[in-house]
Amino acid sequence: MKSLSSLLLVSLTIGVATPLVARPRVPVAAWPGVSDVLLNVNVAAPAAAVAWPWDSEEPGSVIVFPKFRTGFEHGDVVSTVPRTRFAISVVCPEGDEAYCASNPTITMKAQWVCPGDNSGIAGAGVCKESDFHLTATINGTVTFGTDDQTSSSGDVLAAPLCERGYLIVWVVDNKISENPIKFDGLIGHSVHNGELGDWTYLGIPIQAADAIVSTGDPTAADVGGALAFDDSHYRAITGTVFGSIRYQQTEGLRVTPTYDTDLIFLTLDVVSGSLNEPTYVALDFYNEKEEGPISVTPHFTCWSEERRIEDLNEELDYDFGFAGFVRGRATAQDLTTPRTLIAVVETREETTIFGDNTKYAYTLFNNSAPVQTTFVPATAVVH
Questions:
Q1: What is the CATH number of the domain that holds 323?
Q2: I need a surface site. Which of 100, 106, 194, 303 has the fewest CB within 10 A?
Q3: pTM for the whole thing?
Q4: 299 alpha carbon, distance to own chain's centre
């Protein structure tokens, strides 16, 4: 039975976050061949000591979709429906009706982000990218899929250079200059076809920083077109996630119920098309009795494919508990320098007696403590 579940995105912006701390630069010599674009980009210091991370329940100037998968529905090459489909709607930012009337069509830059190819040392890898433009009118919606040639608005699309990864989209002034601007009006979702039904995710919006006063103002003029999530250009995001999780379980009259749970990780600490450091995630798993933790530290480069939790540690099954709690903190390879982290849980419930199949996905909560970072598109010119 096909079940469509909504992604729960919860804002943790109530409360005072810790002050932003600039991320230490890593000497380029420590990473032979690594582009120094991300490692040495200079971003302005926050205007105030107190920063507020992004609000996942408000429209943003940037929107992140945590997963795409290429191919066609049900894996059928005869089908013309892409396995992953997206819808981005544009709303007018509150109080900016005059701007929206003068700018009825919004231009966006979109980029497929691939996981690292592990071509470098110590897990580093080149994160391939391909980019394209999208357009939508105010109160309009543009739809497209991974394997479409054009969007519903007639935009020519680029094909992803990998089978799986994530998609990031941001508002720009036009298709020629491609200057990122403040326009907190993007919302959206994606649908992913699978064997037991569809996964549904809400896009994760990130707002422009309060220091960028007016809608339409540039957000990256002083950083060469890069997206600086530092609460001076765009709001910062976090590097610690936590939430409930389900382990594999057998119970009652159900003969072979399975609760297969996967974790997906992504970071915005990315230099597109260049060699990137791996991100390490220190995970602690607990059960209903607060036993544990069982600790593991997987790593990934830019984006991780689905990680089955029992593959992370075989003890994370029904012997450990039916459900529990997981906490994760992202760092660079030194296990000290913080990295940004977004984490998604995917759970499949299947029984053989009743034929009940359920799939659901949700993002983990965050601790509201911002981590500065810069996402560098391939088109950015940063020194």
A1: 2.60.290.11
A2: 194
A3: 0.84
A4: 16
